[in-house]
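Run log, item B.
One chain of 436 residues. Sequence copied directly from the ordering sheet:
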Amino acid sequence: MLRQTLTRILLVCLCMTVGNVAAQTDEIPQPSDYAWGFPIRVSRESSFYTIELPLEVNQSVTDPDLRDAGVYNADGDAVPRLFLPLNDEVERVDYSQSLPILPLAKAQEEAADEIRLIFERSGDDARVEFNAGNASALTATGKPSSYIVDTRALKENIKGLELEWAPLDTGFIGSVVVEGSNDLKSWSPIGSSAVADMRQDNATILQRHVDISNSGHDYLRIGWTGMPEDWRLSGVKGIYTVGMTTVVRRTAEFGADSVDPEDGGIIFDMGGAPFVDRIRVKVMEPDSVISARVFLWQERQKRWIQASNGSFYFIGRGRQTVRNDWNSIQRTRTSRFKIVQTAGRPDPALRLEVSWRPDSLLFLAQGRAPFTLVAGSADDASTGFPQQRIFGDRSIAGLATGTRTASPAQLGPRYSLGGPASLQLSDPTDWRKLLL
């Protein structure tokens, strides 16, 4: 009861503060001053609502930091709102642990019922014993056809394997299949991936990782196709995470938008500026390798800065293909990327995959529903972004968290409000010159 009373007092105080500010200024824009509207859909009544914002909202504002976006109630009055990263947790950290492995010859695989595996641990060592009659199968051939991996010492759930092998003179692209079992008799597939170790066009292509969906299996079996005759595993590491919350992220793929005449770089325009922290350059032509620098556009400074530099490839051998992995970059609000090629096939077909942490909207349900999110105003910059200045009080985040009253809501389809849809920000004023 006391908690509910305090919550009401805080809400009343916050509403009175906003109301007093609004009454003393004529800077409050009207919904019709904005270019776009998004109806807000709620499933139940609440004092606060929170919404994960789709990229379309970032594409609708004229300010990258969402300062020209607001929330209005059914009476056309603006309400307190706050834009925040959906979550700001540290990304999950991967750990690895070496696991005991056992090479098996084909004869030993086929006689699975007769195999008796006894893992006796002494530190990281493992000893394996076979029933008589099969013990010499691997020794006779010298060629393993699969490997058994013992995961029982690892308490955490494995999400992937890192394979290790000795360097070979012949480059290759092969396929690895991983199966899981608890009794060494019944096996179920839990993962597969192409692996590679080769050089092409002065680029080293090395892929050792295999994602798996390990549901607590005690043993894993690794099989393969397309490997050289002398390929052997020298070790296997289990990849796992500990105590980290999964970070919500969204991903989209973009085609080339234009070319920078100054350096010939290919520009990719997302149309909006979310917090991007991962990118992947996709070479679309098979058997292609390029070297390139990737730049991102700094929205406020109005300049390009380098975000990544490396080799990007799309290589195939038979049915197996490999691509370069994702590149992590410093988390930045940006709407554009530029790829400047430095080596490789001229004018390759490229696409860009972008991964970001979406923004979230938190607002006070002041007044009558329904509520509407508005975005895109050419006048907000010249008036000091009144939505942010008057209604962007960060204290509502603490209030909503402290009272635990924020309920999830969703945005409906975007529609036109008739306001100006574009804004050309003037160059930053050099106050030092004016003062002089």
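Observations after the first pass:
- The chain has three domains: 33-86+358-422, 94-241, 250-357.
- Residues 1-14, 16-25, 118-137, 422-436 have pLDDT under 50 and may be disordered.
Flagged for discussion on Thursday.
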